[in-house]
Amino acid sequence: MIWIYVGAVLLVALILFFIYGYREHYRYVVEDFEIEVPSDAPFHKPIRLALIADFHSTQTFGPKGNKIVKAIEKLHPDAIVIAGDLTIKGEKKPEISLNFCRELKKIAPVFYSPGNHELRMEDYEAYVARLRRIGLHVLVNETENVEINGNSVYFTGLVLPISFFHRFWNEKKLHVEEIWNLVDEVPLKEEDSSGKPLRILIAHNPEYFKQYVKWGADVIFSGHIHGGVMQLPVLGGVISPSFRLFPKYDAGIFRENESTMLITRGLGSHHLKFRFFNPPQICHVTIYKDREEES
Question: Which pTM was predicted?
Answer without folding.
Answer: 0.89
